[in-house]
Amino acid sequence: LHGAPLNAISNALAKSKRNVTGVLHVGSSSLTCNDGQSLATCASVPGLTKLHADGNAIGNTGLAEFRRNIETMNHHLTHLGLAFCSLSHGCGTELASVTRQFPHLQSLWLHNNALEEPDINHLLAGFHDRAHIQHIHIQDNHLDDDIGDAVLGFLRSRRQCERNHPGADSVTSLPRCVIYTSRNNISTAMLDIVAQSGVCGHDIIHHGGTFVTGNAVRELSIKSIVEQTGGELSGSVSNTMTSSLSKYIEQDTSLTYIELQHNQINNDGTRALATPGLRQSSALQYLCLGRNNIHLSGAVALLEAVASNNSGLRALDLANNPVFNDKNIGDADLQALLTLLPQCRHLRFLD
Q: What is the DSSP string of 155-186?
């Protein structure tokens, strides 16, 4: 879409009197360093709240052009995806300037770039007075323990925001923020320093097999899983691992987000996950089970759980599963699925 096609699309949307649905995906569209201005025009589309431009080689030059062209625009973005965008060392000030243009930003994807410690310093410093940020993805970059000071400064600023927040009387006065740092050269020693500083509050540093929450570094186990990808959860162990997770979901009233994509959970695992966990959890709001070899029967089991009175799930992501690939699916099967949807009272997103 680079060049004229993207310009035509972004200009047409910008001039439209109708707001778009809120999400615009231009990921993996062959955008280059020359498309920063067009990407900025996309970001200014009326009603747009989520812009996903992951997988485009815009690089530092394209990011700078993007920043120059959004400074005069009015923005309401809450989600910005710039993962796999060939960003490298030296773009930190540009990144901080870009995020400052989006005061309502909640999620920022920067994983799988080549960012270094000075870039993250600039980025996190720009978030010091930003109470809305909830997810910062910096996995798979060129980071090491030197980012510790930047992380500590960011977390201290969060605690200061809470103290300054009108009516704040607990550490939960701000939404929880999770910083994803896995697949970098970061040691548990740095995580220990952050934990012992006592400034984490209810925010989390999520580092693959370990994570920091409160004042402790914990191993990522089935009882504390937030994100697990890469095929380690499989249907063959669903009666132990997935069932244990299901019971934990039922009991933990603070767990709101679970991502389990690209595993092998399959239909047996989804049924174990659905009962009692999903059926009984009013706290869990987002569940991602993409790429898990889930068929229609597994999807129906999940929706039956979501349709229960106690479930508070708002988003169910089953993308890239063979839900409708079975040649034996008939009208009755599809009707059973469609009958369940109106009963899912809280569900707002289903892929």
A: HHHHHHHHHHSTT--STTSS---EEE--SSB-
Q: Is the peptide bond before 118 cis (omega within 30 degrees of 0)?
A: no
Average pLDDT of the chain, as a whole number:
80
Of 145, 141, 124, 123, nearest in space to 193 by CA: 145
Task: Strands of 55-144 (E only): list them.
Answer: 79-81, 107-109, 135-137
DSSP 277: I
DSSP state of 68: H
CA–CA separation, 202 and 198 (whole Å): 11
- Please give the order of strands across the beta sheet that includes 286-288: 257-259, 286-288, 315-317, 349-350
Assign residue 167 a region (left: φ > 0; alpha: ψ between -120 and 50; beta: otherwise).
left
Whether 40 and 9 have beta carbons less than 8 Å apart is answered as: no
Question: What CA–CA distance (Å, rounded) separates 229 from 238?
Answer: 15
User: 286 has which bridge partners?
Assistant: 257, 315
Single out the residue of 277, 289, 287, 216 nearest to residue 256, CA to CA: 287
95-152 pLDDT tens trace: 999 998 888 899 999 999 999 999 999 999 988 877 789 899 999 999 999 999 999 9
Give the angle subtended at the CA of 143 by the CAs of 33 and 68, to the nearest 5°. 30
- Residues 69-96 pLDDT 10s: 886 665 788 999 999 999 999 999 999 9
How far is Cα 302 from Cα 300, in angstroms, rounded to an integer?
A: 5
Indicate left, alpha or beta for 59 from its phi (over 0: left) and psi (-120 to 50: alpha): left
pTM of the full structure: 0.66
- Tell me which amino acid residue 335 is: Q
Sign of torsion over alpha carbons 83, 84, 85, 87: positive
